User: Fold this.
Amino acid sequence: MPIPAGDCVPDFVTSSDPVLQFAILTGLVSIALAVLVFCGVLAMRARLLSMQRRRGEFNALWRPLLTRHALATDEPLGVLQQVSWPRLWRAERQFFLEEWNILHDLLRGEAKDRLNEIARLLNISPLVRRQLRHRRLSHRLLALVTLGHLREHAAWVEIHALLRDQNTLVALVSARALIGIDAEAAIPEILPVIMAREDWSTARVADLFAEAGATAVSGPLEEALRSSPPESVPKLIAVLPEVALPVSERIVSRLLRQPVDDRIKAICLRILENPRELPLVREYTCHDRWHLRMGAATVLGRLGVPEDREHLMRLLGDPQWWVRYRAGQALLAMPFVHRAELAELAESLPDPFARDILAHVLAERAT
Amino acid sequence: MMYQLLLAGQWLFLGYFLLINGAYLLLNLNALFALRDYFLGRRMDVLPKAFSDYEMPISVVVPAYNEAATIVASVRALMQLRYPEYEIIVVNDGSRDDTLEQLVRAFRLRPFPEAYRQRLPTAEVRQVYLSTLHPNIRVIDKANGGKADALNAGINASRYPLYCCVDADSILHPDSLYRVLQPFLDDPRTVACGGTVRIVNGSTVHDGFVQRVALPRSPLALLQIVEYLRAFLFGRLGWSPMNALLIISGAFGLFRKEVVVAAGGYRTDTVGEDMELVVRLHRVLRQAGKPYRIVFVPDPICWTEAPEDLRTLARQRIRWQRGLGESLFMNLGLLTQRRAGVVGRFAFPFNLVFELFGPLLEVAGYLFIAIAALNGWISPAVALAFLLAAVGLGIVLSTSALLLEELSFHVYPGFRSTLLLFGIAILENFGYRQLNSVWRLIGLVKWLAGREARWGEMRRGAKWSTTRKPPP
Assistant:
């Protein structure tokens, strides 16, 4: 309340001015909240520091132990039974699983077997299988990864059930675990899930295939591509160029002739290896969609015959930079086209865009 | 009459402080949920193979103007990013020092007959250089046109579907590209993603990466750390889930190139080109009815040096305010168009009222209280009560940002850091925020008056950075 001139200052504590009361209340509540937050943060920080200290102590003890015994591949596995392993406390289990899995991914061959033997001696498997049902997601994920590394066949059914889990990570990690246990048995189970799930990116699917290996993937993948309608296999098609898996030419040729999504066609062009399809590829050099013209240019560079030079020369003047660029690279890749010939063309072509792009690819090749 | 005016003034200012701080607290709450969801998806990071080897290639565009002292180290650091396929395009924007010569020498650049496509208009591109040592490094040498112009030139030269704009002095985390890419993989509608920018002052940087995080000694830098957490980290994270993020920092952001080109690239007639682009993307994509997302990742993946002197800081804040005004007013259509969504109905007016014109009310509020108290229109006790409310609310906001930081990344180690940051969070509200309001008011006035804002030059300390000697 404003003070009339000449009057004394009223006692704000006993003032009934609602604005004043509200302001004071706001201020006091704010400060009280801030103090509460401060205490909460201090408590959290104390907990964090305690956990970091315990982790440091755990690593100091276990990391050298695990590393030394995993890498001692000149010793028989039986020696591991003679080792006096420290007791693994409940609070240390997650630390152990994390360290063990990190080592597992870093090491190869017999070292992995030794790590698995260590896990067996410490009775890790039943513990981890129980952890599949833990309420914390991070614990469940860690359990899945561990079971995959352990190649724990006994957990197959439980892990398989998680392939269709709502959580993307759980499903992906389950697939990885199954591949780790038995890649050849896992892939036929995983392929339908790949086709059904929208939340598994191409990159993650490529990771799964790479991990499983060509031997495990090729056959079931071929069968899936052959038997499923094209619209339901875009994810399988998309990943093929990344993982360089051999795929039947018949499937690729079939897809190129069918009215499928242009993305599928573009991918088929990338992996096409059959020279008998050149007439079809030449048709694609006139397609409306530039990325298909670009794909066709690349195929002609890979598989083309001398008459295909004309198609590529035409594409050097395409309105799209990427089409011109791939056409230039394709010309350079053709074994019967000489560099000197292209250098001359780069000077003499009437189209400035064509000249520029040829000069560009020639300079790139020279570096 | 006087009484009515004073009463109205008191309610107005009290109401304003309640509204703005309440809104930020709500954003912090939203940020809390966003953090929880984010960390759920990030659980695999403790394990190897957290990232794929088959990610989309990225063009990293680095505009450079008079960066001779640091550009080589910056590019070398970028070369060490952990990512399967990316190219680095440095755009030398008519530097007056020997930025280009440093690059030519360090990376054995030679002129390259690039078939350069000018999809976005820029100042003259004089020459494109290609590194003979590292074929994924190119340098565009062009006439000076400003940062926005340099970014457009970099976009023109980029080969990949995604480009990442990085300031020449930004310090990235080795996994920065992976992290900022994840939203694009999680949701193909994503067209832009920003990363958190943290303050590097006080930390130890070696060979272009942060080795040890620590708090700076400079009080000004300390204040900015709390401010960044409050306003830039959790404020933005709060808007992101609602697809209402209006700014992605020019220091680090990943964009879908074709979307940016279709929208016209960066505008060169504003100092807030980073914000203006994002606001425009919202406007044009909403207008076209295209589904899209513009998001934010909270990971501390980009570090930058904050000004440690008042003059540079003031210039920066005045420029930011001007950029804000330009970005909003160049895209007023977002406010009024039919398909405005949360960004047009809430984020835009919020920024207009509280961020752009808010400083007017804030400074007026403080002045009002001071003048009224000095003239005896209100008692000193009343004045103190108002200040208690305004400052108290500010303290809650600052400390809630520290709470979110503790729940998520707890980047600053030890108890001492926690205590110091709390002290700063309180002190921030006794002068620093008020000073910022004054600077922002100056920026607002300058923008309204149509005065040109200049980037100016920042006094760089970088006392904490070390590098290996380059190989002979």
User: Anything to note?
Assistant: Chain B is about 50% helix and 15% strand. The longest strand of chain B covers residues 293-304.
